[in-house]
Amino acid sequence: MGFVKLVDKVGTPAPGHAPAAIVRDRPTVLLYATLGLLGYWLNGLGSVLGQLQRQLQVDRGSVAFYPSMFAVALIAVGLLAGRAAERVGHRVVLAAGLAAMTAGALLLATPWQPLTLLGAVLLGVGCALLVQVVPSAVTERHPADPAVVLGEANAVSSWASVLAPAAVALAVA
């Protein structure tokens, strides 16, 4: 119970001091939107597998390989990108992540299976880079209340992940 009481006091302003207001400026909103893209693509990949199977005329086992390629890329980049992000900075990693996600999504739309597999890998690489940089960038931007901005960023990502299957359903209907 002592730990719970300590946790209750975390983030509580001192008496007579109001908590710092969070300014949702353009960079903050862009970071939120970037995490939203990540959520969209994470759920979007699963949503397009059936369509991809029909487009490529392959069996379910072949299509099941796509989330695995995505996950392997996430793990590999997750293990290596933290140090790279420290060296080159948030902006460079953010741009690289967005570029990899965009290229991956475009390659997933091609009719040639090797390119679609490369697309899944690039999508995983891009998402992993964003997972590395967005939380640290948004908390660095708002050091007074990182829990709130992380919660908001994750809420945007969650909403976007709900939209992906609906958007795919509308597109193929």
C-alpha end-to-end distance: 54 Å
Instruction: State the share of residues found in helices, binned by percent.
Output: over 70%
Please work out how many helical segments DSSP would assign.
Answer: 6
- Mean pLDDT metric: 84
Q: Explain this structure to me?
A:
The structure is a single chain. The N and C termini lie far apart (54 Å). The protein has helices at residues 2-9, 26-56, 60-88, 90-108, 113-141, 146-172. The chain has 6 helices and no strands. With 173 residues, it is mostly helical. Helix 2 packs antiparallel against helix 5 (113-141).
Summarize the structure.
The protein has 173 residues and is mainly α. 83% of the residues lie in helices and 0% in strands.
Labels describing this entry:
globular, disordered N terminus, mainly alpha, 6 helices, 173 residues
Write the SSE topology:
Blueprint lengths: L1 H8 L16 H31 L3 H29 L1 H19 L4 H29 L4 H27 L1
Helix pairs in contact: 2-3, 2-4, 2-5, 2-6, 3-4, 3-5, 4-5, 5-6
